[in-house]
Design goal:
There is one protein chain. The protein is mainly alpha-helical. It has two domains: about 20-80, Arc Repressor Mutant, subunit A; about 100-255, GntR ligand-binding domain-like (Four Helix Bundle (Hemerythrin (Met), subunit A), Up-down Bundle). About 70% of the residues lie in helices and about 5% in strands. The chain is built from eleven helices and two strands. The protein has helices spanning about 20-30, 45-50, 55-65, 100-125, 125-145, 150-165, 170-195, 195-215, 220-235, 240-255, 255-265; strands at about 70-75, 80. A two-stranded antiparallel ribbon has the order 1-2. β1 (about 70-75) and β2 form a beta hairpin. The chain is globular.
């Protein structure tokens, strides 16, 4: 198997992301019938060895196939091929994040979505859910204190808000968007990390969202979530030339799989 698995390191289209190409290869195995409905997906470790990519690439590819209906998860059992192929699956251009303009567009999408999600979360908050949300917020602070970018923790924080709504469709939508949100948040957090005041603002905005949701104030939660997204746009738009140059490098790395792989190997 290892000898015949296609290499992702020398693609015909080098501008494509590794996760996009891996998702296409895995989908081909489903469409060809090699992996029939109900077939259990190989383990994450097996796929990293077979395709010679990182665990992050595998997770992003699997997440994409799950969000578009090709895979389904079973609690405690793993990931399986869905019973039937998806119809009219929603798919975004994998090159969606190649410029600051595109990043701002993604933030705009988040603004429209997350304001309503936060309002509904506030309407359905319980003490137990409130504790989960506070833990998710604390995880971001812990990641920053440890010198990490906090991107995964940030995504988990917003998924926790979606989960609080008790509407799995919101979490499913965020699962689909996550492949794009991850790169967008890498960019916005890279910008924010360069300015101590930006980081303070972001933390205060997250805290305002949590307070409003935990109080059950839907209107305040909506305002806080929208304000957070509007301010994120402004922080990017106000970035000086040195920051924009650094952000451009982040975008280039996000769109250049080979540079990501070289960085991991170093």
């Amino acid at each position: 198997m290892l000898a015949t698995a296609p290499s992702l390191q020398t693609p015909d289209r080098p501008s494509d992301r590794l996760s996009d190409r891996l998702a296409s290869l895995l989908r081909e195995r489903i469409e060809s019938g090699e992996w029939a409905p109900g077939h259990r997906l190989p383990t994450e470790q097996s796929l990293t060895v077979e395709y010679r990519v990182s665990r992050t690439v595998v997770r992003e590819a699997v997440s994409r196939l799950k969000s578009t209906g090709w895979l389904t998860s079973r609690q405690g059992s793993g990931m399986f091929v869905a019973a039937a192929g998806p119809a009219r699956a929603l798919v975004f251009d994998p090159a969606v994040l190649r410029s600051l303009t595109a990043v701002l567009q993604v933030v705009e999408v988040r603004r429209s979505l997350e304001g309503e999600v936060a309002a509904l979360a506030a309407a359905r908050i319980t003490p137990a859910k409130g504790r989960q949300l506070e833990l998710a917020l604390a995880a971001i602070d812990e990641a920053v204190e440890q010198g990490r970018d906090g991107v995964e923790e940030d995504l988990h924080f917003h998924r926790t808000i979606a989960r609080i709504t008790d509407n799995p469709q919101f979490e499913g939508l965020l699962d689909f968007l996550e492949q794009y949100l991850r790169d967008a948040i890498h960019v916005t957090r890279a910008n924010e990390a360069m300015h101590r005041e930006f980081m303070r603002q972001v933390r205060a905005e997250h805290q305002a969202i949590v307070r409003a949701i935990c109080k059950g104030d839907a209107a305040a939660a909506r305002r806080a979530a929208v304000r957070h997204m509007v301010n994120a746009e402004q922080r990017i738009e106000r970035a000086d030339e040195s920051v924009r140059a650094a952000l451009g490098q982040v975008l280039q790395q996000a769109g250049n799989p080979s540079s990501k792989q070289r960085k991991r190997a170093s």
